[in-house]
Design brief:
The protein has 710 residues and is an alpha/beta fold. 37% of the residues lie in helices and 24% in strands. The N and C termini lie far apart (75 Å).
């Protein structure tokens, strides 16, 4: 008898003339009852296509195999057979086969496998890293149920992008399975269930984004009631799922294994995978909410090593004030407006290299110096500049490469650590793809090799997608109907090898006329493709009047330039701000056209006033009492409490409105009131907000931006 511990296992691609193919076919025949019958010709065909992997044990031969195919349309692997000889099971061979398959198909999205539920192999699939997503009737005459298992490689996709958008302005909190079941079970009114339900209190909704990990699918699958499983899977769609890469998840599993019992139950394995997915999530969630006493017992060790706070729901509420301070959503209040963008001169090279050399990631100073010198030597192709305060060390180093018509390439994108860095970083990202769009380039690509975690997180929040050639974002300067934008995207994404194909999912979505009424979906797509506007989408649009004095602080840099002290720095740098007004019939998400009225500076402006000067994304409408809104949004607006109280007619109990908006486009051609009336064919009040039709918005936006793309 051969000792297992003395054997060496290797995974090999099996060719049609391999000595092991006959063994594999016999092994398939021996297990056809569970695998299903497959003709020998199919084995040989798959081997000829390179889709057969065998596990070869030294001195023994082939002890297991895997058959698969590739769906080009869905960019995923379809697992056909996964089989290990009876006497070799339980020795990790299936995991070796799946790991090798992963390496060979890493460019795809993941692996899909189907397995009869009554085979009771859930533990095996979970152990391999799969999660059950769906169920469907099998072809068996006994009416068996097939579970579809999914192994996600962790690549960014549309759902990942939407997850970043949802968590952009909220505290991202992961919840465990028991909390999830408490929240969705309307019949559970015990004390523990009530403690969990505090997380969905109305006043917390603007603050928290409750997130799940894929492990919830394994927990749901354990329920024996098929109707209950279906209902629970449907409910999960209302939550944000935490994205993570499989490699980082595997590493996290190994790192936290020592905090769990030596002899683990299924529930322990599930808890381990949940925490590992939170630790490895690219959203960098800092909180995991649970009622599990054993998990709460390891909180100190987990927090010290992974900066993940395992916390009870009630404790989370108590710590809410501290959580707000820990987020980087709102920068520290500063005085002055001396942030500037400055081109690099030859005399700046040494100081720039010392400031932005990435020693922690092993960058060589000689290599960095060579790169900077090469970029500075070609001023026609490259624009090299820093961003920071006057008379102080720069915060950012950025290089634009305009060598391609369709892309703005950014080979250098570096930031020093400072209190202002998170805000400057997000403003610079916005400037990058706004610049690309203004130059009628359809894509922005950041190819910087040495990116910090904070930069990667910010890029993901702003809809950048990881490709082989860097981080890519579409920025379409187009205002058309959804069907036309769908065709436009299809045409520009034909070029291969650049990662443009990642935007093909939008082609199908925008071509579906039934989805135009889905306001949130259409608004999300406009955000992802900014500054694109979907002309026939049912996104509400409002003309809102604003005094020029407030406009210069909130979004209008032209007006700010006329004032000696400019705009307020802590507001001017932000991309999401708040404007207060009387309570109106408005809803979000939507769009805003800003009508800038007379100057509050006491002097005439050289810029056109009493005109629509800008367009913003309307993110949220919040109605409340003056003191409540001021306390909540005081760092996002320019109004002091006295201004807000005046809006409420000095009545502390009167409801007023906070309008949260972001990513404002300043119009190239402001539209005066008389022209607005002519274009709309009717009078329009500029004393309060006015809702306009999608057709009216299309007319005004195209005039204001001088949009020439058809």
């Amino acid at each position: 008898m051969v000792k297992v511990e003395s054997l060496k296992f290797s995974i090999q691609e099996i060719s049609p003339d391999s000595e092991y193919l006959e063994t594999i076919m016999r092994l398939g025949d021996a297990n056809s009852k569970t695998l299903g019958s497959l003709p020998y010709g199919a084995f040989r065909r798959l081997a000829g296509e390179g889709f057969v992997l065998g596990c070869i044990a030294s001195e023994v031969g082939c002890v297991g195999y895997l058959l698969y195919g590739i769906s080009r349309r869905c960019s995923r692997v379809k697992l056909t057979h996964l089989c290990v000889a009876q006497e070799w099971r339980g020795k990790g061979i299936t995991k070796l086969l799946i790991q090798d398959l992963r390496k060979r198909t890493q460019h795809l999205y993941g692996i899909l496998a189907s397995c009869r539920r009554d085979y009771h192999l859930d533990r095996m699939w979970a152990y391999l890293g799969f999660v059950p997503l769906h169920e469907r009737p099998g072809k068996s005459k006994y009416g068996s149920i097939l579970t579809e298992w999914w192994f996600d490689y962790g690549h960014s996709d549309l759902l990942t992008t939407l997850a970043y958008q949802k968590t952009e302005s909220r505290i991202c909190v992961a919840i465990d399975a028991n909390i999830f079941f408490d929240l969705v079970d309307d019949e559970n009114f015990d004390e523990e269930g009530k403690e969990s339900k505090v997380l969905i209190a109305d006043w917390l909704k603007p603050e928290l984004e409750l997130c799940l990990t894929n492990e919830i699918n394994n927990e749901i699958s354990r329920n024996e009631d098929s109707k209950k499983r279906k209902k629970l899977r449907e409910v999960t769609s209302k939550f944000t799922f935490l994205p993570c890469s499989q490699e980082e998840f595997d590493q996290a599993c190994k790192a936290i294994r020592r905090f769990f019992p030596e002899d683990m139950k299924d529930s322990d394995h599930s808890d381990l995978r949940q925490i590992a997915r939170v630790i490895s999530s690219s959203l960098k969630t800092s909180f995991f909410v649970t009622r599990d006493k054993r998990l709460l017992g390891i909180e100190t060790d987990i927090y010290k090593e992974f900066n993940l706070l395992i916390i009870h729901p009630i404790d989370l509420i108590i710590r809410l004030d501290e959580l707000r301070r820990e987020t980087e959503y709102q920068p520290e209040r500063l005085v002055g407006t001396d942030i500037e963008e400055k081109r690099i001169h030859s005399g700046d090279i040494d100081s720039i290299i010392d400031l932005f050399l990435d020693n922690p990631q092993g960058e060589k100073k000689s290599d960095f110096r060579k790169k900077i010198r090469q970029l500075l030597s070609n001023t026609e192709q490259f624009k090299c500049f820093t961003v920071g305060r006057q008379q102080e060390k720069p915060i950012a180093l950025i290089v634009y490469d305009r060598s391609e018509n369709g892309e703005l390439k950014i080979p250098v994108f570096r930031f020093r650590d400072s209190k202002l860095t998170p805000t400057v970083l997000r403003r610079c990202i916005f400037k990058c793809f706004s610049t690309a769009a203004s130059e009628e380039r359809q894509f922005t690509r950041i190819s910087e090799t040495y990116l910090e975690d904070i930069t990667i997180a910010a890029l993901q929040e702003d809809s950048f997608i990881k490709t082989e050639k860097g981080w890519l974002r579409a920025n379409l300067a187009i205002m058309q109907n959804a069907a036309d934008i769908s065709s436009y995207i299809f045409n520009i994404c034909q070029e291969s090898g650049k990662g443009y194909e990642k935007y093909f999912p939008f082609v199908e979505i925008l071509a579906n006329q039934e989805l135009l009424s889905k306001t949130e979906l259409m608004a999300d797509i406009e955000r992802i493709l900014y500054p694109a506007k979907i002309a026939d989408a049912e996104i509400p649009t409002f003309i809102i009047p604003i005094q020029s004095w407030f406009a210069k602080d909130l979004f209008d840099k032209e007006l700010a330039s006329e004032v000696l002290w400019g705009s307020k720095e802590e507001i001017a740098l932000k991309r999401e701000v708040v404007y207060y007004c009387a309570k109106r019939a408005m809803q979000a998400p939507g769009r805003i056209l800003w009508y800038v009225s007379k100057s509050g500076t006491g002097k005439n402006s050289s810029y056109t006033l009493k005109a629509i000067r800008a367009c913003s994304r309307l993110d949220e409408i919040v109605i409340g009492k003056p003191k409540e809104l001021y306390r909540r949004f005081r760092r996002l607006g320019v109004f002091n409490f006295k201004d807000i109280l005046q809006i409420a007619d000095n009545d502390l109990n009167k409801d007023i409105m906070a309008v949260k908006f972001s990513d404002t486009e300043l119009f190239k051609s402001p539209i005066i009131l008389e022209d607005i009336k002519k274009m709309l064919g009717r009078n329009i009040s500029v004393q309060s907000s006015s809702k306009i039709t999608t057709e009216n918005f299309k007319i005004l936006y195209n005039i204001g931006t001088s949009n020439t793309i058809e």
